[in-house]
Amino acid sequence: MSLVTVGVAATAAAATLLVLDWFARPRRAAYPLYGYAGLAVLLVAELLLFRRVEPVATYFTPIAWTAYILIADAAVFSLRGESRLRSAPRPSTSLGASEFAWTAFWSVPLWLLFEAYNWRLKNWEYVGMPEALWEQALGSIWAFATIIPALLETSDLLAALGWWEKTTARGWGVFLRHRRALGVTGAMFLLLPLAVPVRWAAYLFALVWLGFAFLLEPVNHARGHDSLFGDLERNRGQRLYCLFAAGLVCGLLWEFWNYWAAARWVYVFPMFQQV
């Protein structure tokens, strides 16, 4: 059985589970029209993709994720009566931009940090990109702007479905007791891939993913911001587990949609070259 078959089966199973669970839950509001619009956009984009119609084939990844965000947010609103897109905007600057807009905005430089690491670690590369630089920039910025919103919308959906609703944070208290050590560990994780020879650094990208979480979470907590450490102090485990699961769901969807897109990333790190 090929990796593609396994990936398609896993993605279909995850999507089916979420859809069936959503249908089984009581509603607080009707499913919004923008959710149906997202479904329509996704279906049409899929059809145009497989016919290799441009520019959809090239920009399929950001199109699909924009549609997904609308679909997921609408599902959350139908279950909770509120969502990131439908709730009243909470101005975070004098410009009055909503929290969702700022999440999308900051998603771009955040992902560019991982792209910067990839220049050295060479874990993936992009193929099928447009020749014009402005077209490359448009597709990249658009795609990167969907990453964090998609993760948070998926986490919200899992929470709205009641997953891990009564789960405590038992077993995670060790991180609270060693916050400073965790921050130092995060900094070391981020520095190590830059310090070792490239042939070894290529195997260390997992440290980069963990490093930012270990480094920044204690800072958020110390500054009094909303944080997972705050959840742990209140013995609440739902958000932590929902974020973990959201990462898995989004990871499956990212790989699934990326595989068929004309402009896409391909993995080149050593482990995959031996598969």
Total strand count, please?
2
Based on helices, strands and strand pairing, what is the structural class?
Answer: mainly alpha
Largest sheet: 2 strands, antiparallel
- Note the total helix count: 13
Features:
two-stranded antiparallel ribbon; 275 residues; mainly alpha; 68% helix; 13 helices
Structure description:
The chain is an all-alpha fold. The chain has one domain (3-167, 237-273). It is 68% helix and 3% strand. It contains 13 helices and two strands; from the N terminus they run ααααβααααααααβα. It has a two-stranded antiparallel ribbon with strand order 1-2. The chain is globular and about 55 Å long.
Describe, in short, the structure shown.
The chain is built from 13 helices and 2 strands.
Helices and strands, with pairings:
Blueprint (H helix, E strand, L loop, with lengths): L2 H22 L8 H18 L9 H21 L18 H23 L2 E4 L5 H13 L1 H14 L12 H5 L1 H17 L2 H4 L3 H18 L5 H6 L4 H23 L3 E4 L2 H4 L2
Antiparallel strand pairs: 1-2
Helix pairs in contact: 1-12, 2-3, 3-5, 3-6, 4-5, 6-12, 8-10
